[in-house]
Amino acid sequence: MSDAKLQHAPHQMRRGAANLQKMPHQRDPPRHRPQARLSLTVLQPPEWAFSEALRYFTLKPQAASSFKMTSPEDHLKKYRPDMHISRQESIPSFVMLVIHSHITDICRANKIRCEPGSWPAINHLWRMFFDYMAKAIQYLNQCIAADFPPRYNLYRIVDLLSIELDMVDSTFWQAHCRGFLALVEAYGGVDAVIKSADNPSPILALQFVFIHGLVCNTAGPVEEQINEFDRFKEAEILRIYSDMYFRVFPCPSCLFLSIVRITRLRVLAASLGPSSPELVSAAEETCAAVYGFAPDRWTEEYTLPSDPKIYTFARVFQATTILYALLSLPHALAQPFRRVEAARGRNARRHYRRVLIDSIEKASKVRMGLAGMCWPLAVLGAALHDGAPEEQAVVMGWLREMETLSTVASGPILLQKLLPAFWASGKRGWEDCFDKLSQIAA
Q1: Does any domain span residue 194?
Q2: Position 132 in a domain
Q3: If 159 and its partner were Cys, which of 58, 93, 96, 194 is the partner (CB 3.0–4.6 Å)?
Q4: What confidence score (pLDDT) does residue 41 get?
Q5: What 3-state class would DSSP assign to 299?
Q6: 238 in a domain, yes or no?
Q7: Contact 159, 89 (CB under 8 A)
Q8: Contacts for 12-17 with beta carbons within 8 Å, 24 or more apart?
């Protein structure tokens, strides 16, 4: 080392160099060159995130269950030879969904609410998640512009919608519903979409959107409805809904159609007037369908699960549908739903409120019984505006229990914020409780 360089070296380094000059026959010890600062933003290959997501998706369920590792023979049976990264339908959507699943697992394991910013330790995961959500939206728009098949584009919207339904206080799910329905119309309607593909059938995407969207419409003011659903006939809605059993909303088909009719009556009454003869007649017909349903004899076009608890679910949804009509419809249209209990000298709202509490209590005793109870608890909460504090506390307890279930979206969290505020307000009206379009479906 030259004298000029030594002058600029640290004191200890200069002293060491001087000692070395006194021992010319001793070899210099190896010196480490100063390393450049390592970058944490080195770009990974484009396949990296997908490979990691696929590995997590494949190994995580096995680690959490008692399933044995599959043999090579079983692996070949399960995975087709064409399942290669270059053939995956939407890598951004898949990575987005897996990251969100990972975040949800972490939050559930640490008893933290799954919201951005709730735990700084996973902020980097939230940033990555939103990055891939943006990529998924961009990719979807490219696919729509390129005239990809209807099934493909509709399922990509469902990917995004399912995530937004999980996001507390998100309103973007409404835009996804509207975009989905606009595409269905552009593709020629429900029948044309269903016939466009069969593996997988687009009807599963239709069912997911129609159930969540129509149920959320029940909890919105008449001027904030997703009105695009009104363009579809009752027969089309029934065809979509009755395709298969939907575990997170185990409602009989005839009752689901009655729920849709009640919502439409509520909206039409705002423009036509509640005393319109056509609306009164429709309310009578809807009431007859709801009261005429026998929960213990529930049948569908599809095969119902061979589990006796489904009849408990049927009783839950019958009571919930009646309560929804009593709470949300104008007096003239709600009158048919009061008539039976009024003839017995009972207050219909309080009677069915009690029936619903007892039915949900029975449902809560079975495994995953609360998984499909989000909408019933929303209706029950609105009916408890003059309820006892003990009854209100029971509802809050069920909502907290629901929040821990893996199949549940953001509905229970929203209701834990919304219902106590409504009870404390002293108000009684349906739209006093649900003053904006709310995600209470799951």
Answers
A1: yes
A2: no
A3: 93
A4: 58
A5: coil
A6: yes
A7: no
A8: none
